[in-house]
Amino acid sequence: MVTALARAACFVKGVLQSASLRYQKLSLVGKALIWFIVSFYVCLAAFILVVTPARIAQFMYDVAQDVRHLPYGYTILIVVMIAASFPPFIGHITLLNLFGFTYGLRGFFPAAFASLAGSAIVFVTLRIMFSKRLHSWTSTNEKWQALETVIRSRGMPLIILIRVSSFPPWAWSNSLFASIAPVSLFQFFIATWFVLPKVMVYVFVGSRIARLSDGEQRNHMDTQTKIINSLLIVGGIFLSVLASSLVYHLMQKEIKRLHDSPSERDELAAEALEAAEETPLLGSDSLSSP
User: Could you tell me the sign of the dihedral formed by the alpha carbons of 34, 92, 120, 253, in that order?
Assistant: First the structure.
């Protein structure tokens, strides 16, 4: 127990140190953006406390029901999901919860379709728009050439591992794979199918939250039913975090193995994976200049 706590403390300390170093390297605009995001979430938390979570949840439930009763309401969420699959947008997990919140477990099918379609559209779009930039950048970057060689030799197992990893986030992961020339659209699409179990978990959590958000349903629940629904939500979130942590651990283990490899190529590939934000389609100017 003590050993586990010590490891957890070391992990948290390492994450904080890494975050601090990354923050120090940011430009003035980047630091201002970070503080804007922090201020936004502080104001959001204050708003939730003032308005009360119950009233907000009821409002969201009523809106979700209005969308649900539209003839093709699910297409709205699908379009938003596809848009959110492009960097620098975020919110993939929130949208998955929203599919479950609006349509219950049936929301898994449009959520899965939107995730697969959105990622494929991003992959193809970025490949077409930035093909020249990608070729010129990778032809002069030794680390990226090494990463492409390693992925070409390891094939689908490594592609799937990177794809289901929680880092980088969804939109950035789409861009990352579009940046790796040896990865074909077919390989990327197949690897994305392995994300669907996580999609199911997030949709399930959203469906449980919906039941507790509606005052009428909540008033007809006995205490035991409320506790069970709450435990299912917590359990779903815990399962998702556990799975993401496991995949992240495997990903870090693979990077460490590449670092420890006597091959200079593997060492360079590991460095390229660790610095994924420096890829040609993930850089700060990648979306402004093809």
Answer: positive
Question: Which token pair is 207?
Answer: 């469906």
Backbone angles phi, psi at 194, to 5 degrees: -75, -5
Query: Which of 206, 239, 280, 185 has the alpha carbon at shortest distance from 57?
Result: 206
99 Cβ contact partners less than 8 Å away, ≥ 6 residues apart: 74, 77, 107, 108, 110, 111, 114, 203, 206
Classify burial at 125, counting beta carbons within 10 Å of its beta carbon; exposed 0-12, middle 13-18, buried 19 or more: middle
> Exposed, middle or buried by CB within 10 Å (0-12, 13-18, 19+), for 120?
middle
Give the alpha-carbon dihedral of 244, 110, 287, 179, to 10 degrees.
60
- Give the pTM: 0.71
Q: Please tell me which residue, 274 or 122, carries the higher pLDDT value.
A: 122
**Statement: residue 32 has pLDDT above 70:** yes
User: Helix axis angle, 92-103 relative to 170-179, nearest 10°?
Assistant: 130
Q: 65 or 111: which carries more pLDDT confidence? A: 111
Cα distance between residue 188 and residue 169, in whole Å = 15
Closest CA to 157 of 183, 118, 185: 183
Contacts of 176 (CB under 8 A, 6+ apart): 162, 168, 276, 279, 281, 282
Q: Tell me the pLDDT band of 273, cut-offs 50, 70 and 90.
A: low
Element (H, E) at 119: helix 108-129
